[in-house]
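Case study 2.
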Amino acid sequence: MIAQAYRLGEVLGVATWTADEAGPFQTTPVLGESWQPAGKARCLPHDYVRNGTAKLLTLFHPSDGQVRVKGVTRATNAVLHPWLQQELCAILAQLPPPPEQGPATTRQLWAFWHGGLASAPALPDDLPPLRLLLILDNLAGHRTPSFVNWLLGQGILPLYTPLGGSWLNMAESIQRILKRRALAGQYPTTPEEIISLFEAVARAWNRNPTPFEWGGKRATRRARSRQRRHSLGGSGACTHQPVQRIRRTKIEKWRLSCQMTH
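Prediction:
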């Protein structure tokens, strides 16, 4: 359903955003490239002072590459939920007004995305027009009833990644890019410095963003490769040819059973 949201959400007129929290990032020297002359690498200290950590709250729009971030020292529900609500309200205000449609059509559109979820939130009787799909990790804080009810009231349907399926969240990819550009070769000594580096890199990214696309040629090659292989039980091993089964006669099966019993 999440892959379908990436492919069909914007086509059907429903904005698709992803949200995630990255970190914690420590005040340690980070290896990476620098503008030092060739042969004179930048020296970083081997020791550091633990001066707190920083986290990054992220909202990412894959279709145009725009990212909204905020650096914090803690990512509790009291910090995360108000920021998400503020940013989502700003996003909804920028969207075109929903088309006029009856209650039956509105509920049918909600049911299209809601029906394929394994653990779907209960929909209220009075549904607003569906305007946004929000892809989140499957964390307890993201499933808080008050927060989920607020999302549904705003016309936002949360789609939670399954357990061990955080790779379905494209916010993971943009966070990796921002982390490399912000911290590689740096030695931040305070959480505030880490936050300023991340927010500066995010502003620079938004000046010339790169849209993300789900799947692509690499996913097509992986699908063809899986079709040519035969998976085996017990591990992730596979073979390019089916394993030949040993067909035993009734006498051999009887002898084998006698050996096992004796």
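Residues 77-94 form the longest helix (18 residues).
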